[in-house]
Amino acid sequence: MRGNHESKEEMVERLTRQFRELLEKKLPEEPGTLEEIERVTEEIGTEIKREIEGECLGWHGSGYLGSQIRCSCGAVSKFKNYYPKRLVSLCGETTVTRSYYHCSSCGEGYVPLDAKLGLDSGCTSVGVRTKVGRLGAMIPFGDVSLELRLLCGIALSSNTAWRIAESMGERVKKTRGVMSSPGFGELRGVPKG
Length: 193
Ligand SMILES: [Zn+2]
What we know:
Blueprint lengths: L7 H19 L7 H27 L7 E3 L5 E14 L2 E11 L6 E2 L1 H6 L8 H13 L5 H9 L5 H22 L14
Antiparallel strand pairs: 1-2, 2-3, 3-4
Helix pairs in contact: 1-2, 4-5, 4-6
The structure holds zinc ion.
The site of zinc ion has 7 residues, from loops.
C-alpha cells in the first residue's frame, strides 16, 4: 500500500516492479492454446485491476480529519472510531476503514471517506449497480445474483441485488413521471444513457 510520503511517481515505480514480478510468475514458457492464453490473461488482468483499485482506495486513507470537525448544524462533530465497510466494484470485493464522526447536538453521523468516494448507504459501485439493473430487466430476478457471479465474477447476495434493482426501478419510475409531466414533452425523444 502507498506510504504517506510516497509520491505518485514512486507509487508507479513500485507497482511496475510488482506487475513485472507478476508477469514473470504467471506467463507460461509457451503461449499455449487460446483457452490457456485466455485464462492467464484473465488471471493477470484481475490481479492488476484489484491491486490498482486497492492502491487508489488506500490513497484516500480513512478520511480522518482530526479529533473534531464542524457539523453542518454548526455544532462540533467528534471523531468516534474507525469502522470497516465492505465495497463491491467491477474489480472485486474489498474492505475500507472509515473514520466516523458524530454530532451529539443534532445526532447526525458523518463519514468523510463516504463523501470522498461518492458512496451511498449501500456497498456497490455504479458499475455494479448498472449491471444488476440490466440483468434484472432481462432475466427472472432470482437468477440475477447467480448470473452476476458467472458472467462478471461479482459476488452479491440476492437480497442486495434485489434492493439495488428496486431502488433503480423507483428512480426510473420517478424520472418517467417527471418526463411525462407538462413541460417535459420535448425530452421524450432523448436516447437513454
Ligand atoms: Zn450537528
